[in-house]
Each structure stands twice: as C-alpha cells, then as structure tokens.
Amino acid sequence: MMSRIHLLFFGLCLIISSRASAQSQTEVEIRGEQFFINGKPTYEGRVWNGKKIEGLLMNSRMVQGIFDDLNQETISNWQYPDTKTWDADRNTDEFIRHMAEWKSYGMLSFTLNLQGGSPFGYSQNQPWINSAFDEKGKMRKAYLGRLERILNEADRLGMVPIIGLFYFGQDENLVDEKAVIKAVTGLRDWVLKKDYRNVLIEVNNECNIRYDHAILQPERVHELIELMKKPAKSGRRLLVSTSYGGGFIPLENVVRASDYVLLHGNGVKDPKRIAAIVDETRDVAGYTPKPIVYNEDDHFDFDQDLNNFTSAIGAYASWGYFDYRMKDEAFEEGYQSVPVDWGINSERKKGFFGLMKEITGY
Asked: Which of 26, 133, 134, 357 is deepest in the core (most CB within 10 A)?
C-alpha cells in the first residue's frame, strides 16, 4: 500500500503537472507576413474597407503593467488619487481585470516592458528605479510574480503579449554588459521553462535612444536578438525583435535577425508617411517576408478616414496605440502615465477601441 507521504507526493506531482499543462492554451506562430494563434490566422477572413486584416496583430502600449519604483525618494509621485499611496499589486490586479474587455474589441496583443516606460509619458531624467532586473541582471521575484499573473491571463484569453526587456533611462541600473546578457538569458530561460507559447519578445524599446550599454545600441543589438532566439532543449525558441525611435527605418542587422519587424510612429504626423515607412522597411537589405508591427504611435484622429492606424493597415502592417496622461488631464487619460487607469473611459481610449472593433469585426 502507498504510504501517506507517497500519496501526498503523488498528489503534489499531479497538481504541478496540471498547472504546467494549463500554461500552454495559446500558441503564437509566424507564417510569412502573418500571425497565427492556435493554428489559425488572426482575424481569419477579415477584410475592412478593402484592406486585408487577416494575419495582423492589433495592440496597445501597456508597458506599466508590472511597474514599481524601488527609489523611496520618488515613489510618492505615483500615489493613487483615492488612497494617496502607490500599490504595485493593485496596478497589476487592475490591469488583469481589464484584459478580457480589451480583447472584446479585437485587441490581441499589448506591449509590457520589464523596465517600463516613462511614467510621465516622456521625460529626460529618470531618477525612479523600475526594473525587473537587479544591478547584476538577476530577475527580481516580485516583478516575475506580477508578470506571471499577466501572462497566465493572456494565455487563458488567447492574447499575445510583447515582452520588452530594457528601457533607456533604466538600463544603466545594470552594472555592465555581463549583467545585460544575464538578464536576457534569464528571461529567455524562464519563459521557455514556464512553457509560455503565446509571447513575442522586444529586446529593448527604441535601441537608438540613449542606451548606456553598447550591446543595447543599434550596431550590436542583433547579438541579443540572436541570444534570445537560442532554443530550449526541446528545440522550441522564442520569436524576437527590437524597436527604434519614431519614424526610423530599421537597420539591416536587426531586419535580418528579427522574426518580425517593429516600428514606431511617434513624431510621424502625416499618415501617408506611416505607410511609406512600411514600404521602405520592406526594401531594407536582408528583408524577407515577415510581419511588420507598429507597437507605439501617439497619434489619434480616430474619427478621420485617414489616420496613422488606418494608414498602417492599408500597408498591411499591424498598429499599436500609445497614450499617456497629458498636462492637466484627468486620471482616466492614458495608459503609460502612473498611476494608470486601465479602463476604456476617456475619449481617446474610446476612439481607439471603437475603431479597432470596427476594423477587426469583433
């Protein structure tokens, strides 16, 4: 007969096994220029105003989903209006609470970043410390816990998060290149071990903007893309890219190394230029058919027939919404300014989600 200890051990193994199998409900693939989820192209069969939507990946910049501030001198900047305190777990809880709502409008992806983004939208100096990595590149458990909760919910919902690792203004919190490499390999191995099959990777946000470490800069960032693509023992590997500042045409080394190409539309006021950037990207040496994705663009005009969103999809590129709380605006505005209201309850947010729902047919 089995002893009580053996029964307990067997039961624990069953629990662990069931949790592991539950972690892979959603799998993303790339086939040519299209994204597939669980073997089917996204927005299967969808055409809008004569534009092919099937295979695209509509998204939003939600980089503060696991935000925290480890600098006690700046943490008071992020107080919630109701409690007058900052709460990192509340932020993640509220993020998760709205994910199903976002998907109901056709949003299949969102960008998180393990070093966030400017919690003021744009900023020159970043005295706060928001990093999932310590100074030697080791993952911080609290950040990993919050990330895991979001990825689990995305897996359940059939969503495909874009996980960014580094953000300029925070990368200098890692002491050297060795620490950067440790951060990359640590995150890669963690995602593969957890068997998340629903994620895309963005090595760093805007690699050509103020990074301290040379390996995060344009000339060498492809080294980290290749490192992140190294497979697990099972042979499975991650799908990886990186981004540049608004309007920048990706360089050959990144285009060749990337599984999909990331663009930013910040600073691009003319919607026609958004489409031209896509065309020029396809002309870069080394380009082969692969998805092109805008995952950051702070232009709106969603009530107009031609805007950056519609121009991007007209060129068969996915588009991503970037919104922050501008001067003197209410708490409800923006998704990057901390603290964040993750609901769809401002005119800009409603404009984006409404147009996305129309385009995707959700």
From this structure: 133
